[in-house]
Write the structure tokens for this entry.
Amino acid sequence: MRTVNTDVKILGVIDEDPFDFRTWSGISQYLFQSLKGKGNLCGAVSAEPSRYISTIYKLLSFYPNIDLWKTRYHHNTGYFKQMTKAALNNIEGFHSDEYNVILQVGAWYDLTGRKGKRTVSYHDGNLYAFLANERHRYLEGRGFIKKCLAHERVLYHKMDLLFTMSDWLREMFCEGFDLNPDKIVTVGAGINLPYTLKVDNKNYDRKRILFVGKAFERKGGNILLKAFQEVRRELPDAELIIIGSQLTAVPDGVTCLGYLSKDKDTDKLLNEYSKATLFVMPSLYEPFGIVFAEAMAHKLPCIGTRNCAMPELIKDGETGYLVPVGDYKDLSERIIYILKNPVKARELGEKGFEHYLENYTWDRVTDKMVDAIKDRLL
């Protein structure tokens, strides 16, 4: 039984409602609920400015290209200052004795420098890592990106401690912002599901592939569709289930279920995890990939790419397989191998389940956070 460390008293901050299941894809509520359950969280507040302020900065960020408009808005350092003001205003609702650590999610706002308080942050990515992906390199020379990078650099050096979801991201912080590695601690992340289905005596004889992801192109959906055509030539009864994206036309054997809410459609979503034989998401860029852990929680072998943090989640040959980015031939061969070998699929699925239990629950993550804060800062 773990002893509760009551010396660590945390006040959480995130850009929207901390306990809304939609905030940060569900991460926020699970993170803060875990800390609260341990007795280490006094509360959590939002850094979201008023709708009026948000509208003003959306207009100020205008650009004819809608994607670039969104990017300009989400990297507007003027808006970051408004988020800081909103967060500080909400923090005033707590007595100074209630907390000794501010845990902010992300690098938008600056809550450092408060007397007697240590400031730490938690990240699934950073701007340097984002720009390192070839899909985003066209942004590098733009003035608002340079300004945002400078903002992140200053803020990271002011923070007392940074928590990352992966070792890959930890390296990106060191490489991109010249940070002392001792200041950055990898803590991982937990799954964002209210519960999981108990998977006993799972049937691996089906030839059923599952893909879950909204950003279909970025998550390698088109590569998977191309690989699936090769799979169907070898295994005509193979099926591919796509969740999160709604496609207008799909090949034979593909079923598109669209978006399923983890809050309202939980049973339907988990039923698809339960019925699948393996999970495949050959992402071009994936800052972390919690969905792999969610698949492992249901004893699914996983296939991802040798990119970003995916090699940390998927142990190649042990819990699934890694393929080169964009290589649909290698991907199809791995899929066919697993679908043809139910004994191997079971072995990979069982190992993946163990990997999930050891690394990807929120209690494991927050244990690491609390321990690091206690050992290094208090």
Summary: The mean pLDDT is 94.
